[in-house]
Amino acid sequence: MTEASMQQQPKAPDVHTLDVVHVEGDVYSVDVRGHQLMVDQPTDAGGRDTAPTPTELFAASLATCVAFYAGRYLHRHGLHRSGLRVRTDFTMSPDRPARIASVRVTVVPPPALSDQRHAALLAVASHCTVHNTLHQPPEITIELEV
């Protein structure tokens, strides 16, 4: 294979695998590259409220992705991340199917960040991977392994 033909080959997709296993009741354990996360349901939904819900983790995923991108912007420009916060509010849809109807993400910049940098910080934070994915949803397949 020549160098020119190697450059034309599309890159193979980078597949990431997560495993979820039942623990007890409504509690599930998520294994992510050896890291453990737990999910549960609130007591009023039949769970024991020992961990966040999957829906809360979905919103947290967006918030932490925004925070990561904002933090990288600050670091890249030699600015301190101390005081950087991201707050997320979401509302559930009142109709079916069950889903999140709206999400509001608020970036609280570090107090020392100049007003001139606010728009750039917001622009970078608004293009995080999770936000991009929500704007261009992936193909999702749910299958049963037997």
UniProtKB/TrEMBL annotation:
Coiled coil: none annotated. Keywords: Oxidoreductase, Peroxidase. This is OsmC family protein. PANTHER family: OSMC-LIKE PROTEIN (PTHR39624:SF2), PROTEIN INVOLVED IN RIMO-MEDIATED BETA-METHYLTHIOLATION OF RIBOSOMAL PROTEIN S12 YCAO (PTHR39624). It is an enzyme of class 1 (oxidoreductase). It comes from Streptomyces xiangluensis. Its EC number is 1.11.1.-. The keyword Oxidoreductase applies. InterPro entries: KH_dom-like_a/b, OsmC/Ohr_fam, OsmC/Ohrsf. GO terms for molecular function: peroxidase activity.
